[in-house]
Amino acid sequence: MVAAHAAESRKALDLRILDLQEITSFTDFFIICTASNPRQGHAIADEIGKQLKLMGELPVSLEGYDQADWILMDYGDFIVHIFSETARAYYDLERLWRHAKTVATAELQGKAQIQS
């Protein structure tokens, strides 16, 4: 749950966690949030990266950081999506993955992939 808490600590908007374990094999969870501007998007991504690095976790890939319209941080078992408001509305991952379960952050306590 470290990634979700790190995003919340940088005032990420509309944080959602989707459980994809029964839908796809390429990842277990999506953490989706909105940043109100590029500077906030960078702050959210930096804090997530910092907190996970302290745990020895490094991203498999990091994309979109420079433009900060859609920052994607792939950690294998979970993928963090940090969107601008416009990009989030356009790509609408919640609709695209509507069959995924939405997970409350309290339910993640036992999940090692996103847990502290």
* CATH topology category name: Beta Polymerase, domain 2
CATH architecture: 2-Layer Sandwich
Main beta sheet? 6 strands, mixed
CATH superfamily: Beta Polymerase, domain 2
Binned strand content: 25-35%
How far apart lie the N and C ends? 6 Å
**Count of individual domains:** 1
> Count the strands?
6
H/I helix tally: 4
Strand order of the largest sheet: 3-4-5-2-1-6
Protein architecture, described:
- The protein has a single domain, classed as Beta Polymerase, domain 2, CATH 3.30.460.10.
- It is globular and about 35 Å long.
- It is an alpha+beta fold and about 120 residues long.
- The C terminus is likely disordered.
- β4 and β5 form a beta hairpin.
- Strands 3-4-5-2-1-6 form a 6-stranded mixed β-sheet.
- It is built from 4 helices and 6 strands.
TL;DR?
With 116 residues, this protein is α+β, with helices and mostly antiparallel strands. It has helices spanning 2-9, 38-54, 85-91, 93-96; strands at residues 13-19, 29-35, 61-63, 70-74, 78-84, 101-102. α1 runs antiparallel to α2.
